[in-house]
Amino acid sequence: MNWINGMWAEMVKSHQHNFHSKMIYLSLFFWPVLLFITSYFALKPFDLGSTSPIAEFFDPDDLMLFLLTGYLGYIFFWSLVQSAWQTSYERQTGTLELIFLTPVSRLAFVYGRAAGNLFEAVWLFSVFTVLMLVIVGGMQSIVWSALPLAFVILIVSAVIWGGFLNVVFLFSRDASFLFTILEEPMEFFAGIRLPVAAFPVWGKVIAYIFPLTFVLEMIRGLVVEGKSFTELLSPFAWLVGILSLLFLLTIILLNKAEKNAKETGNMVLF
Amino acid sequence: MLEAKAITKTYTVKQKQGWFKREKQQVHAVKGIDLTIEPGEIVGLLGLNGAGKTTTIKMLSTLLSPSSGTITIDGHDAVQDARYLKQMVNMIAGGERMLYFRLTGKENLAFFGRLYGLNGKELTARVNALIKLVELEDAQDLPVERYSKGMKQRLQIARGLLNQPHYLFLDEPTLGLDAPIAKQLRSIVKDLAMEQNKGVLLTSHYLEEVEELCDRVYIIDKGTVMMHDTPANIINTVVLDYRVIVTTAHLNETFKHDIIKTASTKQLSIEFYDTGDGTVWEVTASFDPTQVFLDIIMTHHQPIFKLEMKMPKLEDAILQLAKERSA
Amino acid sequence: MWLTFRATFIRNLITMKRAYPWSFFIGHILNGVYLTLFAYLTYHYVFDGSLDSRFQQYADTGNYLSYVISGALLYTFSVSLLMIVSRAIISELREGTLEALLLTPSSRKGYFLGYLSQGFMRLSLEFVIVLIIGGFFGLTFSNVNIIGTLVVLLVFIVSLFAQALVLGGFMLYFRDTYLTQNTLFMVMGLVCSVTFPIEYLPNQIHWIGQIMPLTHGTDAFRQVFIEGASLSTVGTSLIWLLGLIAIYFPIGTIMMQKMERHVLEKHFG
After folding, report:
1. For B16-25, B191-200, B312-321, which range has the lowest pLDDT when averaged over its residues?
2. Which residues have a Cβ under 8 Å from the Cβ of C13 and sit 6 or more positions away?
3. Considering chain B, what percentage of its residues have pLDDT values greater than 90?
4. pLDDT tens across C157-204, in order?
5. Nearest C-alpha of chain C: how many angstroms from A3?
């Protein structure tokens, strides 16, 4: 019970601390919409007709649907990078030390933080996406009954990813730099704008590093392509595998960080 | 009882040397400190900057593990039972950090309260009681960024009491505060020990504060305990000078001569200054010389205009110790 | 003014030497490199070089990679320059040195020019690196009109400087850099012909592109750099840029003055 309390505390605090101003919705709604529109038009110079090489992988007429689901997944993952970015603030102001002074479950803190930031960050864009799906896709071409499952997969994956990011950012001085380097490759290779299947082999290998790749494969399979869950067992297994690995890494890093902090008095692990 | 036995702390510091080379350096911040705190007692921890005060406090509060030695709190080991002991101890540091500036005072307390496992009505009741204790009722719903220094500090105190700790460590709690607020804080600390039977460890740069509050004082220097006693005993052992300043009518030479003679047999040193009001005597001795020289004045039937005794303070003791150390 | 210029230049040079803003520097370069790299991958691997029939007509060139790479190059450059100048005063505010600065009777023009000139060292390095990498991915250097390019860049830089003053004014007003700057940069990425010609966008939003120096800068740069056109061919773009300077510079100057006062009243009053 105690860890639920701790998780709840962190969710409430994240809400109070990070969503204090309406301006923040600029970055949470307006930016992803802009990114989505920009990438839609950035593909316009290419041949998107029926003779296009891309037609082999999906119907170019569904480009809008493809990008919408892609950016929905992206915003879930990206908003957690953004909120993790702010966690180094806890170290600088000394509040991290006070949290470690309490007996709260460290894991609850880390996941509470991810969950607390996630819901607030994505609801607006999620509503936008669903509305756009209705407008662009029409009622028939979307499998609406699969939508709840798709969101559950998306949320669980994003929270585990976010928890991992929080640990990395909490205990590292240069994490933000690492993500400057990794953020855009994730946007490109995870199959947000283009189908991973169209990549050359080495591109696919890079794509499979990111859990988002499998999340998107599942969402598109379930919601747009109307596949059943059993048809998607392979990406699901991959996803579970990667998420378990991230979960394990989160626990190991947390323990190591606290131990290190007790030895050196320094909350920076690397 | 909280008991620290022969605790040491050695940090390994990596010094950057050019681009890739790093030199490892061992810094011995604490080199073997024994320390006890009984419930209901206020214990002072004094030392010059870099003496190892903050490191010691962090070890006692389970944030740091000692490199060697043991810390037990009511029989529990501070390294093994760290998670359990976190319910029993808390730390309050001075300064303006360690709060969420965008959250209100109340929200800050609610957050940390939940991390201590408080919930529902119990949490609300605890938070409200603490806000009342530190007199922040009017500001409880303002974001902390709009608090003054003193208000932030009081909020820190409230945070430190959230888990009703049995032992409380105060690291410079009155740093930079106005006199009336500092006084108010001192009375809160006193009550915590006397009425709620908490064991308190206090470090402060304001030695009068330590002298006023503490039952016992540890003076540490370069990571070891230099002296440990009650404030009064420390002053008595360290400060050897008592000063009394007296103003009498202008003295004639024979009288002066007589006094100087008595003074030298009693091993007092006296200096005279003539002022418009009369003669000022400044007497310094290694014991309280009041009696001796009141006797002299009495035998000469001289009126005393003014008598001032300079009692040595803890501050004098520390200054004296610092002087001896550097000598 | 000259003294202020020198003082600011030297101070920033020292700061840069001691604590080089590596993350900004590499971030900007990566931004340009990623745009280039991903355009290359998309073009060659995903679409096999097949372009939309309207591209040639909209872009005045059939060379997609040169088009995107030069867009990426100038986009990166603009973002960098806008950030350096617009963040100057608000950085002073955050570091607590603004009061000390405003106490001196120094020239604000000298201050900003000093800032820009020092930042220019970093900018040029970023520019050259992205340019060279772009060369590997298909940017053509064979037709470059060197004098034309230099003239276009010079006018472009001045227009960005003017725009940066306005941006800086908004930053001071909102007391924010992150949201303000990135919103602008994302809008620029959409409406300034960076990765696709503005003509693909609905007509109703073309005007947003028209008031951004980057749109005219990339247009002119592509003509003189890729196509080797003469300056007279890019006359319209240059006139647009000069016009934007004439509008943004006075507005920016007045905004900065007003905001300095505004900030002082808010923070020290």
Report:
1. B16-25
2. C118, C121
3. 31
4. 999 999 999 999 999 888 888 889 999 999 999 999 999 999 999 999
5. 34
Strand partners, B33: B7
State the maximum Cα–Cα separation within chain C, in Å, rounded to a whole number: 63
In the beta sheet, which residues pair with residue A136?
none
Token pair of C245, please?
């300077």
What does A186-245 look like in DSSP terms, one character per residue? HHHHTTSSS-GGGS-HHHHHHHTTSHHHHHHHHHIIIIIS---GGGGHHHHHHHHHHHHH
Residue B24 near chain A (CB below 8 Å): no
| pLDDT, average across residues B255-281 | 80
Query: B46 and B217 in contact (C-beta within 8 Å)?
Result: yes
- Distance between CA atoms of residues A125 and A25, nearest Å: 10
State the angle between helix axes of B314-326 and B231-238 in degrees (0 to 180), rounded to the nearest 10. 50
DSSP 8-state symbol, B48: S
Q: Distance between CA atoms of A190 and C36, rounded to whole angstroms?
A: 18
Q: Is it the case that residue C266 has pLDDT exceeding 70?
A: no
* Residues paired with residue B278 on neighbouring β-strands, in sequence order: B275
Could you tell me which residues come within 8 angstroms of residue A93 by beta carbon, excluding any fewer than 6 positions away? B97, B98, B99, B100, B101
| Residue C231 near residue C252, CB atoms below 8 Å | no
Q: Count how many residues are written for chain B.
A: 327
Q: What is the pTM of this model?
A: 0.81
Identify the band that residue B16 occupies on the pLDDT scale cut at 50, 70 and 90. Answer: low
* Strand partners for B307: B246
Rounded Cα–Cα distance for residues B246 and B263 (Å) = 15
For chain B, positions 85-104, list CB contacts with chain A under 8 A.
86-87, 90-91, 93, 97-103
Q: How far is CA C29 from the centre of its chain?
A: 13
At residue B172, what is the residue type?
A: E
pLDDT at B248: 82
Nearest residue to C69 via CA among C98, C48, C38, C91: C38
Q: Which ipTM value was assigned to this complex?
A: 0.89
Spatial CA neighbour of B52 closest among B22, B28, B34: B28
**Which sign does the torsion angle of CA B223, B229, B235, B238 carry?**
negative
Chain A, 24-83: which have a CB under 8 Å from a chain C CB? 24, 26-27, 30-31, 34-35, 37-38, 41-48, 51-54
- Nearest by CB to residue A16, choosing from B58, B98, B107, is B107
Give per-residue pLDDT as tens, B69-80.
999 999 999 888
Show the CA angle centred on residue B225, arms to residues B221 and B230, nearest 5°: 110
3-state secondary structure C199-262: HHCCHHHHHHHHCCHHHHHHHHHHHHHHCCCCHHHHHHHHHHHHHHHHHHHHHHHHHHHHHHHH
Q: Give C187's Cβ-side CA count (13 Å radius).
A: 18
Q: Does pLDDT of C108 surpass 60?
A: yes
Determine the average pLDDT of the residues in A101-122.
Answer: 87
User: What is d(CA A113, CA A123) in angstroms, rounded to the nearest whole number?
Assistant: 16
Distance from CA of C190 to the nearest CA of A (A): 5
> What 8-state DSSP symbol labels residue C51?
B
Domain extents for chain A?
Answer: 2-264
Residue C144's Cβ-count burial label (10 Å; 0-12, 13-18, 19+) is middle
Which of C182, C177, C161, C176 has its CA nearest to residue C252?
Answer: C161
Q: Given this model, what pLDDT does residue C269 score?
A: 39
The tens digit of pLDDT for each residue in A35-68 reads 999 999 999 999 988 888 888 888 888 888 899 9
Does the CB of B68 have a partner CB in chain A at under 8 Å?
A: no
Q: Specify burial of residue B75 (Cβ count, 10 A radius: 0-12, 13-18, 19+).
A: exposed
Other C-beta atoms closer than 10 Å to the C-beta of C154 total 11
Q: How far is CA B59 from CA B86, B322, C108, C159, in A?
A: 12, 25, 52, 59
Sort strands B167-171 and B89-93 into parallel, antiparallel or unpaired: parallel
Task: State which H helix or E strand residue B248 sits in.
Answer: strand B242-248
pLDDT in the model for residue C9: 84
